[in-house]
Amino acid sequence: MTRNATAVWNGSGKEGSGHLTTQSTTLNNTQYSFNSRFADGVGTNPEELVAAAHAGCFTMKLSFVLGGAGFTPESLQTKCDITLEDGAITKSHLTVQGKVSGITKEKFEECVKDAEANCPISKLFKTEISSEAVLL
Would you list the DSSP string of 26-87? Predict the structure, then answer.
């Protein structure tokens, strides 16, 4: 399986702007710029998209890990914080809240660590990855 996205940029790094389009067109000429990346401008940015990708991948992997352990989650919600420092992504921190009947806190945390280490986006990163688990 191969997926794709396209970025178009016009102008200089600071004054220019661009747009992103994904194969599915969920993002379709979605604006991004210096201000949307480094200030409060309108549009998305690469770090926000990486955070969404990591949160989504991790959460789906966690659902599979829980299923493999004999649990079906009622709900899982993950927030991903991406840290950009000195021109590099230096950390991805996942905070997950899960409602999973019959699971112990310890087993839930074990499953979270498994998903953290083994989701495809985690495997892609060459940076620090951490997580917090809250069982509801």
Answer: SSSSEEEEHHHHHSS-SSB-HHHHHHHHHHHHHHHHHHHHHHHTT---SEEEEEEEEEEETT
pTM tops 0.85: yes
Please indicate, yes or no, whether residues 131 and 79 belong to a single structural domain of this protein. yes
Note the pLDDT of residue 31: 96
Q: Domain range for residue 16?
A: 5-38
β-pairing, 5-10 with 75-85? Answer: unpaired
Computed on alpha carbons and rounded to an integer, the radius of gyration of the chain in Å comes to 17
Q: What total of structural domains would you count in the chain?
A: 2
